[in-house]
Each structure stands twice: as C-alpha cells, then as structure tokens.
Design brief:
Layout lengths: L3 H15 L9 H11 L6 H12 L5 H8 L5 H14 L5 H9 L3 H9 L9 H13 L4 H14 L4 H11 L5 H18 L11 H5 L4
Helix pairs in contact: 1-3, 1-4, 3-4, 3-5, 3-8, 7-8, 8-9
C-alpha cells in the first residue's frame, strides 16, 4: 500500500489535469517525475482503484480518495457506488465528463507516461488505469484494444485485463455507450430495412493472444 504522501501526490496530479496545469510532452523533467509517481500504482490495488474512481468521477474529494487508496473499510461502499453510475445511468457520459474536466485524452496520457517507466512490470498500474478509462469512456475499438493489448503484454492474467476482456467479449458496456449503440443500430436498421449480419472474426482474446 502506498504511503499517504504518495497517494496525495497522485491525487494532486489528477487535480492538476483538471486545472489545465499539465500537458504531457511539455516538460521532459516533469514527465519523468510524473511517470515515477504513476509507477507506484503497480501492485497497489487501493491506489489504482482510487485513481480509477477519480477518473470517472473527477470531483471525488481528497478525503474519499485517500479512503479508497488506503483500503479503509468504509471505502468499499463508496467505491462501489461510484462505479455503479456509469453502468446504470445512461446520462452519466464518462467521455463528456472526462473531456470537460481533464481537457485531454487520459488513456493516451497514461500510456505515454508509462512508456518512460524503465521497468515494464512497473508500468502495469498506469496501463490498467489507461485501459479501464478507455473502456469506460467508450473509445473506438482500435483505441481500446490498443490500450488493452499493451496492458495484456505486461499483465496477461491480471484482474483488470481479464475483467475488461470478458466485458468486451460479452458486449457489456457502460449504459451511455449501450444507449448510443442501440440508437445507431436502430437507425441503421431503418435505413437498410434489415439487420446486416456481421462477418465472423476472431474474439478479442484470440486477437491479443493468437498462440493460445
């Protein structure tokens, strides 16, 4: 578990994004320091979960962030309630929230910063957060599978890797994503007069692990 100073530094970094105070690539020295900070997410499920909670609910306060990061018993219902919103409330559009709050593509930012972490095993936490956020904000297939593929390369059997693969392969997505997909399908059906049959293609798992 990360010490409180590290957890607070991660929280402050996320809030600096909201304030428009950080852009990856603008300051190499700052990028290096930030990447080192994000390496602390690897192997620390509490801090990783706190980051994911803050990404989909940017207004999460410092005290509650610390509760999740420090595995406070009171944090479980707090974390669960925050995670439920995107799954059941179609008006909780994670992409719009992220764009208005963070002012940049968060999965891409986390991926770029992870590239500067020398030890590939220490990239896992940042890549988990990137793939998770990519999924929750409904990224296009190519972008999401890119993030998930990079995560699978360092953590093929990790919990986040498996959960995202399973959700994707079973067509489980946040409510706002499902609503938009259903609308597009109805519009396509109305235009074509019939539902087109999608060609067979390998599953996501088969594409990421072709030799298994």
């Amino acid at each position: 578990m990360a010490d409180r100073q590290t957890a607070l530094a991660v929280f402050d970094f996320l809030d600096s994004l909201r304030a428009g105070q950080y852009r990856v690539g603008a300051d190499a020295e700052k990028d290096h320091a930030t990447a080192g900070l994000l390496a602390s997410l690897s192997g620390d499920t509490g801090l990783r979960d706190a980051v994911c909670a803050k990404l989909i609910s940017p207004g999460l306060e410092r005290a509650r962030f610390l509760m999740v990061a420090e595995h406070d018993p009171r944090a479980l219902p707090l974390f669960a309630s925050g995670q439920v919103k995107p799954w059941y409330q179609a008006d909780y559009n994670v992409r719009e929230i992220a764009n208005s709050e963070f002012h940049q593509d968060i999965p891409a930012l986390l991926w770029r910063l992870s590239n500067t972490i020398p030890d590939s095993a220490r990239r896992e936490g940042a890549l988990e957060a990137a793939a998770y956020m990519s999924f929750m904000q409904g990224d296009p297939e190519a972008a999401f599978t890119g993030h998930l593929g990079r995560l699978a390369a360092v953590s093929p059997e990790g919990e986040v890797t498996r959960c995202l693969m399973d959700a994707h392969e079973h067509g489980q997505h946040p409510a706002w994503v499902m609503e938009r997909r259903q609308l597009r399908e109805r519009q396509a059906d109305a235009a074509d007069g019939m539902t087109a049959t999608a060609p067979d293609r390998p599953s996501l798992r088969q594409r990421l692990f072709p030799n298994r």
